[in-house]
Amino acid sequence: ARVSIVEKNYGFSPDIQTVGGEDGAYEFAALPFAFYKVAATVPGYAPGFSQVVAPGPDSVDIVLERGGSIS
Q: What is the model's pTM?
């Protein structure tokens, strides 16, 4: 999954992205203190977003729902 940080006050920050591992784990290191949403996308699934969070040791889980298709 491609995982991005969305700063609450400024919108998407495309330079703050990472790619999750096969197990879905991801990490952002050394983020400046601010309030963020975490956004995750994977082809074939609807995008997922977290609640607003601040950097820290707690994990943020995002569940992605399989997306529909148009034939």
A: 0.73
Return the closest-CA partner of residue 36 out of 44, 18, 23, 25: 18
What is the rounded CA–CA span in Å between residue 8 and residue 55? 13
Distances (CA, A) of 66 to 1, 13, 15, 19, 47: 13, 25, 26, 19, 9
CA distance 36 to 4: 10
- What is the distance between the alpha carbons of residues 26 and 17, in angstroms, rounded to a whole number? 10
Cβ 34 vs Cβ 8: under 8 Å = yes
Using an 8 Å Cβ cutoff, are 36 and 53 in contact? yes
Residue position matching structure tokens 């203190």: 33
